[in-house]
Amino acid sequence: MFSRAILRILCIATLLSFASAIPAKQLINGYEPKWWKEAVVYQIYPRSFKDSNGDGIGDLPGITSKLDYLQKLGVNVIWLSPYFDSPNIDGGYDIRDYRKVMSEFGTMVDFDTLLTGIKQRHMHLIIDLVVNHTSDENKWFVESRSSKSNAYHDYYIWRPGHTAPDGTRTPPNNYPSYFSGSAWTLDPKTNEYYLHYFTAKQPDLNWGNPKVRDDVYSIMRFWLDKGIDGFRMDVIPLISKPTGMPNLTAEQLEHPPNAYANGPHLAEYLAEMNRKVLSKYDVMTVGEASGTTLQQTGSLVDDRRHALDMIFNFDAALLRHPDFGPPQLGPWSLPKLKAIYDSHDTVLGKHDWDTVFLSNHDSPRLVSTFGDDSPAMRASSAKLLETMILTLRGTPFIFQGDELGMTNYPFKTLADFEDVALKNAYKDKVETGKVSAAAFLASQTKFGRDNARTPMQWDGSPEAGFTTGTHPWLAVNRNYKDINAAQEESDAVSVLNYVRSLIKLRSRTLAFVYGDYQDLDPENEEIYAYTRTLGEDKYLVVENFSSGRVTYTLPKGMKAETLLLSDIPSSHEAHAFILNLGPWESRIYKQ
Ligand code: TEU
Ligand code: CA
């Protein structure tokens, strides 16, 4: 009896001491550790990744067949762009049925096989959640437009607009669409206008209607219960519309996304989504934050708010874009890029988390935009850009093909392009005489979204091994004989093999994840030099952003003793304080 009582007391005492030994949260350098903070994300645009059945369209079995390639690359989260049933007016960002796989991409069985394959390789899958708008062929909209008294009418944003004394109709306000023209279309059946921030075939959902929100949450649960690991949320700051939707002022018309984004109910909708859905799963979320300033980031990602985990802020990615770039910044320079990353470091604190990316399916190719895609410089500059993306502060995102240093496509005529945004812009700008066809095509060849969407270059066989057919949906870049995965696999100093080493280095170095960042030389026009420091563990990254050789004297206190990675290993001068950097050379030193 007595000894049993003592035993019981001992047991309780042990339990108590255990409980007190577990700290509430083990922070790393003030950050709460999370798997998605340590992840390297790889974006797949399914139409262009790998075609398994020769119809010229990438598909889900094609992706499954390349999972070993992705595992060997070292990425551990895959972001899959939309693969849902869609009339495909905007590359699948116009969803007809959220619970069905686009028939061109395969079946739900193919999706389940893909997800199983991803899990077997200890990788995660996040999918695109496109719920600012649906396709006009979605059954909700078909119902909604059928009559004003339909139960789904209020699922979208309908307004009567204005009627002049002579009967002429004009839209409710002056909102422009992202994809040219008015954001309103008059629908004959109800004789009302509906709102569409993108094409007329992408009507905006009415998030003010609680039934819409509940239906969206149910779609989210459908995929989460299948085992996906989170969402990239398309244009999520746009879901709450401006109060009363008054006309944009002349100033707001200079940059409409800023006026559309972060409406009065956004925080409330995201908190509800988190409470009702996301908080029940161990997932990651990244919001595409079109129209959001750096200062607004905290309102979306601060972990005390329980909204999103991360957002894509486009300030760096659009820096070289003539129309979308931050207007106040003017032409490109390296100090401007550094100033952006430096400001992220200042503004985003320990409760926020950043993303690092310079490309996606909406952008031109990374190396053609921020590097130098001439044959002599392409590989080095592609390596440098990946070095930067994988060592700056935030979760890095790699767009398919950038690990090979794939380049822009030499588009020549309008017929070479597929993108609806571009075709609409052509009608708006060229057909009205505002811009010459030559100027328009020259600009789109540099900045058009189709640059990212040409098929993956897998090998040197016809159509780059993307398809066994002869008609890929978008032409393969002619440089595929030189730039392809098979060739780079066998080349020890290829971009592909370099990126693999880089990801390996990052994966075993927590300083690149949770470490402090310091820009050592913000004004330097050619060199980006910075440190990442976690306690005693310190790393120096030096990048030569120029096509010439540069002699660079290390800032005080830095040493070039232990070289961890460089794309020109032989150029390393042991123990030097003056570095002779080759064109676009990048180096990572342990301090
Ligand atoms: O993009 C929204 C968006 O802001 C871009 O279209 C932007 O205008 C463009 O990238 C500038 O170059 C998202 C998707 O990523 C895009 O593919 C869709 O077309 C769009 O939403 C509508 O869903
Ligand atoms: Ca196919």
Structure characterization notes:
This protein is an alpha/beta fold and 591 residues long. The protein is built from 19 helices and 22 strands. An eight-stranded parallel sheet has the order 13-12-11-5-2-1-15-14. A hairpin with a 5-residue loop joins strand 7 and strand 8 (169-170). It is globular, with a radius of gyration of 25 Å. The termini are far apart. The structure holds 1-O-alpha-D-glucopyranosyl-D-fructose and calcium ion. 1-O-alpha-D-glucopyranosyl-D-fructose is lined by residues 90-91, 93, 130, 178, 198, 234-235, 288, 290, 324, 361-362.
Portion in strands = 15-25%
Mean pLDDT: 94
Which small compounds were modeled alongside the protein?
1-O-alpha-D-glucopyranosyl-D-fructose, calcium ion
- Give the C-alpha Rg: 25 Å
The order of strands across the largest sheet is 13-12-11-5-2-1-15-14
Give the strand tally.
22
Which structural class do you get from the secondary structure elements? alpha/beta
- For the terminal residues, how far apart are their CA atoms? 63 Å
Helix content: 25-40%
Q: Summarize the main sheet.
A: 8 strands, parallel
Low-confidence residue ranges: 1-22
Using the alpha-carbon principal axes, give the shape.
globular
Number of helices: 19
State the main characteristics.
about 600 residues, alpha/beta, five-stranded antiparallel β-sheet, disordered N terminus
